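I would love for you to help me understand the pair of lines that follows before we discuss the fold together.
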Amino acid sequence: FLSHFPRRILGLLFVLCTGLVSMASSTFARSSGNGARIPARVIHRRQKSTLSVASSRSSQYCCMQSSSFGSSLNAGGGAGRFGGVSASLSNVGNVHGGIAAATPRLPRLPTLAKKNTVRSKQPLRAAGPEVEVVTAETEEELKKKEEDKEEKATLFKAIGVGALVSMSLGILDHDWVGAHQELSLTIVFIIGYIGIILEEELAFNKSGVGLVMAVALWTIRVLHSGPGEVDPELQEKLGETSEVLFFLMGAMTIVEIVDAHQGFNLITKSIKAKTNKELLYFIGTITFFMSAILDNLTSTIVMVSLLRKLIPDPDRRKYFGAAVVIAANAGGAWTPIGDVTTTMLWINGNLSTFATMRDIFLPSVVSLAVPMWIMGEFAEEAQGVCERNVGCLVDPDNPDGPMLEENNPNDEVELAPSGKIIFFFGVGCLLFVPVFKSLTGLPPYLGMLAGLGSLWLLTDAIHYGEEERSQLKVPDALSRIDTQGVLFFLGILMSIASLDTAGLLKDLAEVLENNIPSQEIVATVIGLASAVIDNVPLVAATMGMYDTTQYPMDDELWQLIAYCAGTGGSILIIGSAAGVAFMGMEKANFGWYFQKISGPALAGYLAGVGTYLGVHYGGAMLGAAPAIAAGASDVIDVLPL
């Protein structure tokens, strides 16, 4: 196997292994030296010699006894049982302890030795001066040992990771990988994707796994296809991916600035309800439209944080939080800036702004209305009137009485300085992006960056000279955005791009078309799969599978994929970023969500698909109604009636 390795890789492996071995040797030598410096007053319990233990204990015991007691024992035992043992112990004492043979000795009794072994931590008292035997190590020594242990463990982990990377490089350069490039790419992608799915179990962050997977896939391409062929493709795909990343970073920063100024409290303060059912509908509606402007993850975090102020009961709050997840995913599907998958399709030219909002809005509303109705009518958590101390405007003792305004906790939340201005300006920047693209024809990320730059200048002007409010400025907001999420998108999109340039996605599209002729079924299955698998790689793969020449902008396939990938993640709690955020904030588990929420969410998802197909095909049938009527009239005229 090693004969196939290039000499440079073998040389690098040799240097790496030599360096790691030398590091290990120095670490062990240093830890051994540290362990040798033990204070003289500490006596270790590691002496395993039976003769030494017997000699020392018999000597100590004799020091504590009188000679008459020893003589009586010898006299009683004679030369039989105790006499021979006494002589042998005397010889042992002469060898190991240097004790005079004339000193009377007693045999090492098994029970006495066992007792002394157990109670060795206590000081042994003799007839002479008191001697303290310290058997416990000092705190400094224990701490040093723990540090040495951690250092060794870290070194072993570094050796393991280094060896794994070196072996992976050698395997990727093997002739078999080049002869079976498509199969090799598929295997690497499947292994990486399993690592992403099992992120929690393996304790490896999915962003790191995605980046390593992307580099491995492109390495296979360049080693076996040549840089001349791969470099132009890499630059092209990196440019397309960067457009999505810059758009997301700009949007995240704008939302973070608005949130730092408490701007979203303007929305949450408008919540007024008399019953829990009304509160559920209010929460769902506000989240739906908030997610259409922001993104579903931010909307979920904002609304779940609000629920902590509104609902003290953890079980009821968890149920309302699940409704927030459904509403956030439904609201993000019908606008180009509401969900990352819709944004990807929009930036890639698969969707336009106004056609997307016109055709997907009604299915998204249905996908929210159906589960909201089921949850509101049949769930125990949504029944009854609101409690007086949670901000709902009704007295439980007098539900038909006047509204109660004084106990609404939302009124106690104060906005940051200029929070109202920042809110409206930030939302205006987000809404300006589709207009900018329509007016100029430039990529959407430029409009987003223009909005971010404008908001940056505004916050600098408002908070000029206010050093104590640095958290309200853009540089501080940039440190709080989800950078690891951006890097995850980078790894996933570049991995999908490598498969696309290798032609694998086209082959997959042909297999689906030959076996599943209905594109509606393909889109529906993609939505169901997004409940288990992250929807970003699913949509990215679909964009590579189908070409815009075959399926032009705003085709039924692209619109259904945007809807299904956006709302299908609500079926399971792990199916969307909003669900994962809710899981962490409210400690909701998979089983509870599956039992309580998955049924209504699935019903809403399928109802939305049916609504889209009904509107689409119903409109086509209405448009063809005159022609159908004219044809029917001609048929009637020729019939012999």
Observations:
- The longest helix spans residues 139-172.
- DSSP finds 29 helices and no strands in the chain.
- Residues 272 and 392 are 6 Å apart (CA to CA).
- The radius of gyration is 38 Å.
